[in-house]
Structures are given as C-alpha cells and as structure tokens.
Write a structure and sequence with these properties.
There is one protein chain. Strand 2 and strand 3 form a beta hairpin. Helix 1 packs parallel to helix 6. The chain has 244 residues and is α+β, with helices and mostly antiparallel strands. Helix content is 29%, strand content 32%.
Length: 244
C-alpha cells in the first residue's frame, strides 16, 4: 500500500478533532484523528479513548462508499487506527449544514418543534471561523468574503450536498439509522476541482436509531448522556455488518 512508504513531516494544522500532516509527496496529506471532544464552540471539552479511531474507520467506510457512487472526495486510504491518507486540498471556508429533521439550533432559533421531519432537505452555510463563532452565511456573504468564485460554485456545493444526503440517508436507512442532519466541508484539489473533504463521522452527523430515536452521535457528549464511544461503535458495527 502507498502509506507503507509515507512518514509525517510538518504539522500543517491542528483542529478540534484532527491534526493534518504533510508528507514527502506534496499532494498527499495525513489526517490524525484525535480522541478529543469539544462542543459549543469549544466551551465544553473532554476526551474518550478510542473515539478518534472509531471516527477514522467510520469516515473511511463512508468515503469509500461515496467514491463508489461517483462522489469526488479527498480520501485515498486508511493508514492505521487513527490515521488517514488523503489528497491535499485548499479548504473552502464554508461549513455546509444539511438538515432532514428539525432539532438542535434549528428548533431553538426558528421555533420548529424538535423531531419535525422537514418538507424538503434544508441546506445552510456557516462561515468556518472559530473566532467569529461560525456565523450563518448567505450567498452574498460568500461572495463578499471571496469564499467562492461565483454563485455557480455555491449552486454546485448545494447540489453535491443534497446528492450526498440522498446517498447516505439511503445507506443508513438500511442499517435502521436516521440521518437527522450533518456538516460537510469541501475543498479544491490540485486541478481546482471542488471535492468533499474533512470527515464523515458521528462527530459531525446527527444519527438516531430508526426504531427508538436513541442518539448515536456527539449529542451524547453535548447533552451529557454518556456512552459516546459505545454509540459510535454501534454505528461502525452496523456499517461493517451491512452485507451479512
């Protein structure tokens, strides 16, 4: 495998959940998944042993599945328990929020009852900027901040977000899991193509058991429910056993 010859070189970026390292290949980076947990813009912090490895493996499974479905992503291969090899990408500083069921901030800010199934998939943009608290963006904000070249790129990002939502909602439905909402990030590869990046884990997906509505995501940490790694492991086990 390619990763057998790679070593981490320079720490490019350290975020709440991952460290990004350069390699001897200029177009390949390594993401190191951390066990750290944060919520409420970093106001609540903790860690759980094994959380990073679970997120790495879940993300690997989902990136591979999306690649099979024709979605362009940065994923190359899983290196080991906590490390993933992926393409270098120029980050587009827009967090793309996709919502199928009202909960969390949507219910709080707009008064939509918790657990209301939305009449259509809602796609929102947040500014990826921790210092500002990741504020909401509209199309004009995105252009004003030079986050994209033109509105056609925003249209493409929305299209891709909805397509990914359809693919993963159908995928998880077969595992008796509801995709409530999730966050995506996109970037530009070396050919200036917009591709899916970051991770696809229960840290940035709200996932509920389809029969019980039990939370299988980071809300277990946000709401002090406990059992986070157990919930993440349940998600991974269902993914890995989906064809059995």
């Amino acid at each position: 495998m390619l990763h057998d010859t790679l070593v981490k070189q320079t720490l490019i970026y350290e975020g709440k959940a991952k460290k990004i390292w350069s390699t001897e290949y200029p177009d390949l980076y390594i993401s190191e998944f951390k066990d750290d947990l944060t919520a409420f813009n970093g106001e609540k912090k903790s860690s759980e042993v094994g959380k990073g490895a679970l997120n790495n493996e879940i993300s690997t499974e989902l990136f591979k599945y999306l690649n099979e479905k024709g979605i362009a992503t940065h994923f190359v291969e899983m290196i080991d328990a906590n490390n993933m090899l992926h393409k270098k990408a120029e980050v587009i500083y827009i967090e793309v929020i996709v919502r199928n069921i009202a909960t969390g901030s949507l219910s709080k800010n707009l008064g939509i009852a918790d657990k209301t199934v939305l009449p259509f998939t809602l796609v929102e943009f947040d500014y990826k900027n921790d210092e500002l608290g990741d504020p909401k963006l509209n199309d004009q904000h995105c252009l004003l901040l030079d986050l994209v070249k033109d509105t056609s790129e925003l249209d493409y990002i929305r299209y891709m977000a909805r397509r990914i939502n359809t693919i993963l909602s159908e995928f998880y439905a077969k595992l008796d899991i509801k995709v409530v909402d999730f966050k995506l990030e996109f970037g530009r590869d070396s050919d200036d193509n917009i591709i899916l990046i970051d991770e696809l884990s229960p840290d940035n997906f709200r996932l509920w058991d389809a029969k019980t509505d039990e939370k299988l995501d980071k809300d277990r940490f946000r709401q002090g429910l406990g059992g986070l790694t157990e919930a993440y492991k349940m998600v991974l086990d269902r993914i890995k056993n989906r064809d059995k």
